[in-house]
Amino acid sequence: MSAHENLGRAIANALFPIADYKLRRRVHLSIEDVELFDFVKLNYTELAPFYRRYEAELVEGAEGYFYLVSQGAMFGQRQLSKGEMLVALTMAHLFRDPEYRVRGTGEISADHVIARLEALKTMEDIARVMTETRVKADLHPARMREAVLDAIKKLAALNFLHLLDSTGTRFRCKRPIHRFDQFVAQIDSLAVPVETEANHEKQ
Amino acid sequence: MSEIENKSRLATTAEDWRNLVTVPVRDFVEGAFERILRYQSSLDLRHEAVREEIFNLVQTKADQAIDPCMRLLDQSMQTIVELRDTLLGSLNKTEEIALDILVRARDAEDADAMAAVNGILKRTNQISEWTHARMEAWSLHYQNAQSFLRNVVRVDPNRQGAERLKNFIRAFDEKTPCMTICREPGLRHLNASFLVTPPERPTRQREDFAIGELEPEAGLAARIASGITDRIKADLETRNSVRLSEVLTTLESAPWQELHLATGIALQSILSNHEIAAIHDFVWTKVRGTAEIQDIEIQK
Lengths: 203, 300
What we know:
The complex is a heterodimer.
Chain A (H helix, E strand, L loop, with lengths): L2 H10 L3 H9 L4 E2 L3 H9 L1 H9 L3 E6 L3 E6 L6 E3 L2 H14 L2 H6 L3 E3 H11 L2 H9 L9 H17 L3 E3 L6 E4 L5 H24 L1
Antiparallel strand pairs in A: 1-3, 2-3, 5-7, 6-7
Chain B lengths: L1 H9 L3 H48 L4 H42 L3 H43 L6 H12 L8 E3 L37 H19 L2 E3 H6 L6 H18 L1 E14 L2 E9 L1
Antiparallel strand pairs in B: 2-4, 3-4
Helix pairs in contact in B: 1-2, 1-3, 2-3, 2-4, 3-4, 6-8
């Protein structure tokens, strides 16, 4: 069968519209979503060049998930908000903690996220990033909690986690949350040579 | 339970039902089920202990803990799978026997025996729910712990990843770059120059059917429903109670769909005007052909 026939067969599959719709809308397809993940995995050879024609890369995370990275204007790009990013990084940190993954049941709550954030940053810093403002009234804990819950719901829509209640207070992280580990590792690897270079210059 | 079922076949008097069925069934509920509940609690504690043991292994031995943890997880999972298979198998058998006894108790009109057997059915439901919930909890923990061992402990035994994340969060501020994702598709604004008017399609009045009455009050179903309520009223003038199935079996000539709808309409007025003496949840009574209803007993 030719490459075109294989692509035609993949597109004719009933799962293609769902997988395509989700990928274009920034949703990560996790190994936990068995059917869609298997569909993309089995048809990766056809789908990767297909999305390249839209200037987008279909990426497979080592821990078992797929996502689309737009490299041009056809799908476009946007960045996560500071609040979403900070909450997601904290979840990724909790997801690497045996206290929650092994001793606990894997369930994480918004309070766990806030407590971990408070252990790592000052209240004022958290509130400033979460609410993206320096207005004093917006630094109130209740508003911060609201912003955390809002970020949790947005991250759930991208399939980084599975909500256990609609308010976003309880959830389980999914494999794509490991993408934040990769992101931090990449930034670190970019930062190290720059620092080293600077040190050499000083020396 | 099999023994009780056999004895229930011999019961003829109320005294027989009490000695051969009601009392032994109550003993069964208090004995066997209490033991199962105690066993359930001990399993919950064991699951907690397993979680704690794996946690300690991971904390002290890092990647050396993977193999013993996997063995521990596999053993725990095997135990819960075996428990589920045994317990659900036994529960199904118990329910089957209990339903047989319930039908016999109903025929003998022995309310105490029926209540005792219903007690068993409630307990079997509770245990079945517990088993499913625990199975789900253990499976989730199994998947979670396995993925943690494989994707975190094996790949990063010295926890450099966690340390890197921690430092990144500490340093995170308004200038820190954020992860890029595909842009949300914007709303497409349609205007007159974009829209193409669809071609005008010729229409005509359909002639292939007549428009029927929409209000059920004017239809056949409403007439059957009022027949059902009238019949119940008439029966209750001569008797203390009447079963819904008795009334429905007399309506042989009513078309099936209309009878179904009429029963629903009639029940609305029956439930607001009469007392329901007993709802036999587990007893299905034939009303026509293979059609059955969950029967109710209507009182004056």
